[in-house]
Design brief:
The structure is a single chain. The chain is globular, with a radius of gyration of 18 Å. Helix content is 16%, strand content 34%. It is of the alpha+beta class.
């Protein structure tokens, strides 16, 4: 992705927050100078991966395949000291092109996916087959706001504002913002999140995008905090 595309995506996410009167922690509103001034205080935030995250999953088509995320809280697998025993993310999906997070499942993470505001959340669901692909035959059992539902393989469910679905390990899912219903704010509340080891994508993809630096960064992404120390020294 180009840095200009990342910058624009984060600024649009901030506008979506304003439009929906949805408030994030104060460091979500820092600009680059603020991050540099706080560089010496970021060790814990860096270790548990809090902050902004923009990805196109290696597709090279952010308008259709991609997401902006902000991790509010998280822990560290194998080390209970740095964070919390659970994670929370806010995820932004754009409705014009039904921007999606592509099919994937988690090996260990259980997550509640919640429509926090804006548009309508759409999900397509399959069990994972033994080789990691889609099990196109088996029914799916999911909890939706505590109610257990049995659905056919490949079901597409609509999640309205305030409602949620619980996804267990091994359940393939993709989700997107319903076209014409507005840009979407998704909440994710889960067990500890580890994006380096716990995402299994259906197709070859990249969790963190390679970045083409065509303009200065508006803010650092959650995997770039190490660069702030260098800028602070300069």
């Amino acid at each position: 992705m180009k840095r200009s595309e990342i910058n624009g995506a984060i600024k649009r996410a901030l506008a979506i927050l304003r439009e929906n009167n949805f408030i994030l922690p104060s460091f979500a509103y820092w600009e680059m100078g603020d991050w540099i001034n706080h560089a010496s205080e970021l060790d814990n935030i860096k270790k548990i991966g809090l902050g902004w995250d923009v990805t196109d999953f290696g597709a090279g088509d952010f308008a259709h395949v991609g997401s902006v995320l902000f991790t509010v809280r998280n822990g560290c697998l194998g080390d209970p000291k740095p964070g919390t025993p659970y994670a929370e993310k806010i995820i932004f999906q754009l409705h014009e092109a039904e921007q999606e997070i592509p099919f994937h499942f988690h090996k260990i993470k259980t997550e509640d996916i919640i429509n926090r505001g804006g548009g309508v959340l759409m999900l397509e669901l399959y069990k994972s087959a033994p080789e990691g692909g889609l099990d196109r035959e088996s029914d799916i059992r999911v909890k939706m706001d505590g109610f257990i539902q049995t659905l056919p393989a490949g079901s597409i469910v609509e999640i309205e504002k305030g409602c949620s679905i619980t996804l267990h390990p091994g359940l393939h899912h993709r989700f997107w913002a319903k076209k014409g219903a507005g840009d979407l704010i998704v909440g994710e509340v889960s067990s500890i999140n580890d994006d380096d080891t716990d995402n299994v994508f259906l197709e070859v993809g990249r969790r963190f995008s390679e970045i083409e630096e065509d303009e200065p960064a508006f803010v650092p992404l959650c995997n770039e905090y190490g660069l702030l120390q260098e800028k602070a020294v300069k």
